[in-house]
Amino acid sequence: MTVRTDAFVTAARETAYGLIGAMGNRWRHTAGVAERAGELAVRLDLDPDVLVAAAWLHDIGYAAPIAGSGFHPLDGADHLAGRGWPLSVAAMVAHHSGARFVAAARGLAERLAVYRFDEDALSDALTYADQTVGPTGERVTAAARHDEMLLRHGPGSWNAKVDHLRGPYLLAVADRVERLLTAAV
Fold it and tell me: Do 23 and 59 form a contact (C-beta atoms < 8 A)?
């Protein structure tokens, strides 16, 4: 579904701000991801409404009032779907940054599967935006973000447990997007 309104992206930003706006670095990271997504939408000729809205909303599942399963991509997607957001946006939130690998390890794969995963340029762009913006909103390489994430979450984290699957996927996404960016010059 293509929405094509500034009001849609504004609503996404306001929704995110209402849930995570007071969360310091989480908000800074989210704002950086949304900015990066907007740039990618222009350079790669992707739907800016869906991509930028999903970028604003990708981490809302960290907000305590909506954290049901404790898995932020799923909690964010469930919140959005329950409030009438387009399923295309909820699905992007559900599957951003290789969430399916962590969901499988946590026994949440069936719950995540209610949201369709499209491995396409739009999905790649959201993951790339998330994986090239650090926790305080600064631009980083995908490799640096990967290393920082593993350090921050720790060796016993779900992210570390599935890194043998998720890590190569994230680097492959970065490679695909960077190739598209090079071709778009």
Answer: no
pLDDT at 5 (0 to 100): 59
Three-state SS annotation for the chain: CCCCCHHHHHHHHHHHHHHHCCCCHHHHHHHHHHHHHHHHHHHHCCCHHHHHHHHHHCCHHHCHHHCCCCCHHHHHHHHHHHCCCCHHHHHHHHHHHHHHHHHHHHCCHHHHCCCCCCCCHHHHHHHHHHHCECCCCCECCHHHHHHHHHHHHCCCCHHHHCHHHHHHHHHHHHHHHHHHHHHCC
Query: Average model confidence (pLDDT) for the chain?
Result: 95
Q: What is the pLDDT of residues 105-139, one digit of tens each?
A: 999 999 999 999 999 999 999 999 999 999 999 99
- pTM (whole model) above 0.90: yes
Amino acid identity, residue 21? G
